[in-house]
Amino acid sequence: MTKRERVLNAMENKPVDKLPMGFWYHFSPDEDLGQKTVEDHLRLYKEAGMDFIKVMCDGYFNYPNPFISSVTSAKDWFGITPMGEDSPYIRRQVERVKAIVEAVGKECCVFYNVFCPMSLMRFGTSEELLMKHLREDREAVCHAFEVIGEDIKTLIRLLFTEAGCDGIYYCVQNAEQFRFSAEEYREIVRPAELEVLEYANTLSKRNILHCCGWAGDKNRVEVWQDYPAAVVNWAVYVEQMSLGEGKKFFGDRCVLGGFDNRKSGVLYSGSRKEIEEETEKIVREAGVRGVMIGADCSLPSDISTERFRWVREKLDALSEG
């Protein structure tokens, strides 16, 4: 079975010869290093023996809509308009993915990291300003979410039509228990966020939903339970919900993850024996149907790729046994 076949089978809950595996980390979070960023992704993929590539949006966390600099009050958000497909912010991300897709051909699936509208707005302004403006004029801020969503949809369309991406890795955030109630989240954040994912699904049925536990605070994961995606990835250790439990929670869809992504986790700090034991434990708990092995989120960038190979070799051995 090829890497591509293995991943696609897993995504569809079909049998695989061995469990697919993929890990990722940030190479240069604050800047686009052009060809070096492309080469870094390819190097990690090859050295780690991974089955798919998740391309990071390093350099493009900040949403650089020039309108933002003119915002002085919450109501100003009614004036925001999309940047459009000619924006360097969009074009350069598409170019990165296209270069990686062309380099690997049909050898493996390629997914691109795409953030939800509220997160892009938070990155482009600040946590404090966004929440302040939500309290002052919810309707205006929700309008901004919709507009930002239009730029995200443009990016997604070009990722598929020009770059040849297989799917997006859609990162949803902002559902921390301290931030919103479940009802507030569904009313404020869900409409624009879900519209983006549903649009992506019209272009590909191979999209991954990432329920991000980036801050270490527990989320109200129930708000994402019905989000339509082929695969779901969440912070097992933050949410205290194992892969097996999550597979049931998310309606028996394919699940991705299992390993803690933090430096205190076994994958980063454990011995080879401990990593092998953890791999076996994850497989035993989650099963072998509709499961892809990975981590809760991005790993520290100084982790040795040898550790990923230990996981790969243990998965190989389990499939043979």
Core attributes:
321 residues; alpha/beta; 13 helices
- The sequence of SSEs as H and E is HHEHEHHHEHHEEHHEHHEH
Number of helices, counting only DSSP H or I runs of 4 residues or more: 13
Rg, rounded, reads: 19 Å
Structural class: alpha/beta
Please give the largest β-sheet: 7 strands, parallel
Helix content: 40-55%
Oligomer designation: single chain
Question: Uncertain segments of ≥5 residues (pLDDT<50)?
Answer: none
Mean pLDDT value: 97
Written overview of the protein:
- Strands 1-2-3-4-5-6-7 form a seven-stranded parallel beta sheet, with helices on both faces.
- Helix 3 links the parallel strand 1 and strand 2.
- The model has no long low-confidence stretch (mean pLDDT 97).
- With 321 residues, it is an alpha/beta fold.
- It starts with a helix and ends with a helix.
- Helix 3 runs parallel beside helix 6 and helix 6 runs parallel beside helix 8.
- It is globular and about 60 Å long.
